Amino acid sequence: MVASPGERDVAVRVEKAFKSYGSSHVLKGLDLTVLEGTIYGLLGPSGCGKTTLLSCIIGRSRLDDGSVRLKARRLKDVGFMPQELALHFQLSMQEVFTYYGYVFGLSDREIRFRVDTLVQMLQLPPITRLISDLSGGQQRRVSLAVALLHNPSLLILDEPTVGLDPVLSKSIWERLVEMAKEGKTIIITTHYIEEARQAHTIGLMRYGKLLAEDSPNKLLEDHNTNNLEDVFLALCRRDEAAKEFKWDSSFFSRGAAKPTMPLQNNSNFNTSRFKAQFLKNIYLLMRNIPMLLFTFMLPIIVSVFFSLAVGHDPRHLAFGVVNSELDNSLINCPKVYPTDRCIFEDNITISCAFIKEIQGRDYRLHEYSNLDNAILDYRTGKTYGLIHFGSNYTEAVQERVKLQKDASNLAIEQSFADLWLDSSNLHVLYQMQRDFYNGIKAAFKKILKPCANESETAAESLRLPITMEQPVFGSYDYDFSTFCTPGLVIIAVFYLPTVFTTGIIGEEKESGVMERVMSSGITFLEVALSHVIVQMTILVIQIVELLAIIFLVFGQPFKGDPTLAFALLVVVGSQGMLFGIILSITSKNLTAAGFAGIGSNFLLMLICGFFWALEGAHYSIQLFNRLVPLTQPIISFRAITMSYDVLYDCNLPNAPLNMESTIIQEYGLISYYLHHFLYS
Ligand SMILES: Nc1ncnc2c1ncn2[C@@H]1O[C@H](COP(=O)(O)OP(=O)(O)OP(=O)(O)O)[C@@H](O)[C@H]1O
Question: Which SMART domains match (predicted)?
Fold first, then answer.
């Protein structure tokens, strides 16, 4: 065994380390000692727990039991090369080195000097090359160079020589030996047992514990061989024979690990690290032109397609007409219905007045001489509906209007036109009902107007006994698209940052870059803040695009205060960004984050009142649909765009209490508080 070292010479000491992932026990009471200024070769088959151990040593994972003690105190004293490449593939080597240089607080001059040395030592290609354009071996050497960049006193390298040609591996080992002579401590894992001969100490690991820990020469001597693989084989056989010791589960639930001194980071926020992170985000954005185009084109595409496709009244619908009181009425009715002829005059055809009104509402009318043929076409879906005027329609309506309660039963019966409407499409049905109701009302108004006074009274009595007053909120002229537009804007402004944030952070997490960056000392605050600044800039442009296209180009009504609308959208975008951060952090990988994002999008869209009144949802949904993050912003934005003038006029801070509660109900909490924030 290695002579028992004094505590001063120990760079890393792991004692009785236990670590499990669920029921899989990875580290099983492992002890390991690495002396300062030495190379420690950690050898073992795949899956024996080497990476897990390294992760616990640098503090990225916590032991379940046992302890890890490091002589190094600061994160910048440690250089870590993870097993996966963990590099930004879209960046150039120069940008990667600059990034990590700033992360470790190096000046531009120091970075240049270190990069020149490393390029020579690791035989790297010109540093202007993109990482994605390098070969696998070159990428691994860049990853190693990143770990060496800040000249740390403790180097932890997880399989640095995988995939490298033997000549280069040899030269890397020679350089590691030199570094150890300079006082650096190096822990290196490898599958290539023989290359570890150059290490000062070898730890042979199997099933989560060390079978032996000694100098290579001592191990060879003890086993009377000149081949390390034979040593490992002999130790494995001995381990098999000693398997009577059983690992029962109680062994792995021994309470919390002893506190391990964490590596210090100096501060939660550091300007150099923030600059590194911010510049890296800008580089990544500029390098990824398709993503940049997608980011800026998506709001335009969404708003244009929405404005063109959604909410407008269906037009040019095919509609059947059977007029038994006039042959070929589409041709024979007067082109413009005469406005000076009273309903009671002779030789007037009231059905023509209705047909003209319907034509004016943009229907494609097909006239049939035979009701059966018209019904057949309606039933086979060739027309959306059918109206039939009986042969005595005009006389019957005249008698009914003139005599009213004294009109004959026959006249009343014949004064009804028959209307069939296709109900398979709700929007089409509502529109046809509205058009026919309004058309007949308008036609009546026209043919009653030129009549003498007494007839006018009779005509007035035909009106429904109700008067529609001007609405306080909104307008009767708004169509379905006016109702849906605020929802679309809010959903877009929420989900655009969600997609972007999840993509950027999720990709960094998946590729191992986030792990590497965090173990290099970058804090969550620095990651989040640099991301927020870039994302906010993008968001502002996206909001302007959306608003300009929907409200300026397509002329959706906007009655309120643009500043309040903009402030509301920035709040919603920030919510979306936060949601993206939560999704990418909590999801196992980018695919899972994508699924969670799409799933939540569907769910939230259904219950947020985007295209259907919240009051129309089932009682169980109404218990919480106002609490989901999109609902209040949609209510608020709808209020701002459609009827904000009431809120704007009523000087909120001094409004009576009941007025405030009305406003909160009508305009949504967010408008209310934002208005207070901006104007009180
Ligand atoms: N996050 C995790 N969740 C669940 N199991 C894990 C996790 N990380 C590692 N493991 C499991 O722990 C065991 C040890 O993995 P580890 O990566 O430490 O092995 P290794 O010795 O480094 O292997 P290799 O040489 O192939 O990299 C493996 O069985 C692995 O599947």
Answer: AAA
Q: What percent of the chain has pLDDT over 90?
A: 33
Measured at the CA of 51, the angle between CA 114 and CA 516, to 5 degrees, comes to 40
User: 10 versus 7: which is more confidently predicted?
Assistant: 10
| DSSP label of 581 | H
ipTM of this complex > 0.85? yes
Kindly list the protein residues whose Cβ atom lies closer than 6 A to any atom of ligand 1: 21, 24, 26, 44, 46-52, 83
Are 26 and 52 in contact by the 8 Å Cβ rule? The answer is yes
Residue 3 has pLDDT above 90, yes or no: no
Does the CA dihedral 127-133-135-139 come out positive or negative?
positive
CA atoms within 13 A on the CB side of 168: 17
Average pLDDT, the chain: 84
Of 48, 51, 62, the one to substitute when testing ligand 1's pocket (max ligand atoms within 8 A of C-beta) is 51
Residue 464 CB neighbour total at 10 angstroms? 7
pLDDT of 557 reads 85
Tell me the C-alpha to C-alpha distance, in Å, between residue 95 and each of 148, 390, 570. Answer: 16, 83, 31
Integer Cα distance of 318 and 77 in angstroms: 79
Residue given tokens 């309506």 in the structure block: 397
**What whole-number distance in Å separates Cα of residue 613 and Cα of residue 194?**
72
394 within 8 A of 414, measured Cβ to Cβ: no
Q: What are the tens digits of pLDDT across the range 111-152?
A: 999 999 999 888 899 999 999 999 888 898 899 999 999 999
- H or E element at residue 602: helix 590-607
What's the 66 CA to ligand 1 centre distance in angstroms?
Answer: 19
Confidence at residue 9, expressed as pLDDT on a 0 to 100 scale: 85
Q: What is the largest CA-CA distance in the chain?
A: 128
- Greater pLDDT, 372 or 451: 372
Q: Count the alpha carbons within 13 Å of 36 in the hemisphere toward its beta carbon.
A: 15
Of the candidates 240, 266, 205, the residue with the CA atom closest to the CA atom of residue 14:
205
pLDDT at 153 over 80: yes
CB 491 within 8 A of CB 609: no
Cα torsion for 240, 246, 249, 254, to the nearest 10°?
-100
Q: Whose CA is nearest to atom 28 of ligand 1?
A: 47
Closest CA to 574 of 522, 527, 626, 533: 533
The Cα–Cα gap between 513 and 91 comes to: 13
**Ligand 1 atom closest to the CA of 191, numbered from 1:** 25
pLDDT higher than 70, residue 507: yes
Ligand 1 center–CA 198 separation, angstroms = 26
State pLDDT tens for residues 351-386: 988 898 888 888 999 999 999 999 999 999 999 999
